[in-house]
Design goal:
This protein is α/β, with parallel strands linked by helices. It is 34% helix and 15% strand. It contains 12 helices and 11 strands. It has a 5-stranded parallel beta sheet, covered by helices on one side. The chain has a 4-stranded parallel beta sheet with strand order 3-2-4-5, sandwiched between helices. Strand 4, helix 5 and strand 5 form a beta-alpha-beta unit. The structure holds aspartic acid. Aspartic acid binds next to helix 7. The site of aspartic acid (ASP) has 8 residues, from helix 7.
């Protein structure tokens, strides 16, 4: 695809070569994300960061990624703080705010809303999550993490064996990840969820249509026995009609160190898009996994910055100029990465 000036709304807009291009630019962002070098390639550029639904990681990592490229961030958070609360349409908001920014990262509770906003925007818009629909930058960082984690184990994305566990109905990260996996070869996907929270049928069909093997199950232990990756997710309680309904499913699948030791192959990688729900009633990934070296959740969040830097660099067409605007840092940076 042509990245320059494009919106990033869904992973379905990518070919495999596009994903590989994003990953190779992300690799080159490491010295900047690790604070060994600084670049000013986006000096003067402004990111409109518009998060109309709760977010910590995605919002802050889009902002950090933009800052790390030398740009500035303007934030709007929460529908209640914006003119949308006064009845303004997405069209009008997009026309106005795209006059104030060079690129916009946006999250909104309604599926399709970011695409509607993008259609009226004068600058590229990156989807930071639209309802239960998609979360393309998360799927890219998840796949980038999978690639890096498996490289050291002599395995790759082609031939990957992955179990996705939890709320597969409302979890937008697993929707986008499955669609992205359709670009690769011979993937085995085990979908573990309560019957009511199964992966949408059309996404399962897409996986099968790509030649992948798909198994659906409601039993955690048997499903994680022969996979490279266990990708756990939170019950998306904000998408249920009531708290009581969400409570029916919370805590159904809990992975802890003892289950991991008994059932997983050695070195099975554990992932989660975060936030993990650490309340006693949930604990889909127990804190006793924190010292397990295969717990990749914080490597995922670090990788998120690299992938989002790559997206900005490609969309704003500076990927080849980053190093020309760079210097070493002169403050203490050791030990964080
Ligand atoms: N942070 C992810 C999302 O926004 C996952 C989650 O909230 O459970 O979709």
């Amino acid at each position: 695809m042509q990245f320059a000036g494009s919106h990033i709304l869904s992973v379905t807009q990518f070919e495999r070569a596009d994903v590989e291009r994003i990953f190779s630019v992300a690799d080159r962002m490491e010295p900047y994300a690790q604070r060994r070098r600084v670049t000013k390639v986006l000096d003067g550029a402004i990111l409109g960061s518009m998060f109309f639904e709760p977010s910590t990681r995605t919002r802050v990592s889009f902002g950090s990624a933009f800052n790390l490229l030398g740009g500035e961030v303007r934030e709007t958070t929460g529908i209640e703080n914006s003119a949308i609360a006064k009845g303004e349409s997405l069209y009008d908001t997009a026309r106005v705010l795209s006059g104030y920014s060079d690129v916009i990262a946006m999250r909104h509770p309604a599926a399709g809303s970011v695409a509607e906003f993008a259609a009226a925007s004068r600058v590229p818009v990156i989807n930071g999550g639209d309802g239960a629909n998609e979360h393309p930058s998360q799927a890219l960082l998840d796949l980038y993490t999978i690639k890096k984690e498996l490289a050291g184990r002599g395995r790759g994305i082609d031939g990957l064996r992955i179990a996705m566990v939890g709320d597969l109905r409302f979890g937008r990260t697993v929707h986008s990840l499955c669609k992205l996996l359709c670009l690769f070869q011979r993937v085995q996907v085990v979908l573990v969820s309560p019957a009511e929270l199964r992966m949408p049928g059309e996404i399962v069909e897409d996986l099968r249509g790509a030649g992948h093997e798909v198994l659906e199950s409601d039993a955690l232990e048997a499903s994680i026995a022969h996979v490279d990756i266990v990708y756990s997710t939170r019950i998306q309680e904000e998408r249920f009609s009531s708290q009581q309904e969400a409570d029916l499913y919370r805590g159904r699948f809990r992975l802890n160190q003892s289950i991991y030791t008994q059932h997983c192959e050695p070195n099975t990688v554990i992932m989660h898009p975060l936030p993990r729900d650490s309340r006693e009633t949930a604990r889909e990934l127990d804190d006793d996994l924190n010292d397990n070296p295969n717990l990749a959740i914080f490597r995922q969040t670090d990788n998120g910055v690299l992938v989002r830097m790559a997206l900005f660099a490609l969309v704003l067409e500076v990927a080849e100029q980053v190093d020309a605007h760079a210097r070493d840092v002169n403050w203490y940076t050791a030990g964080r990465f």
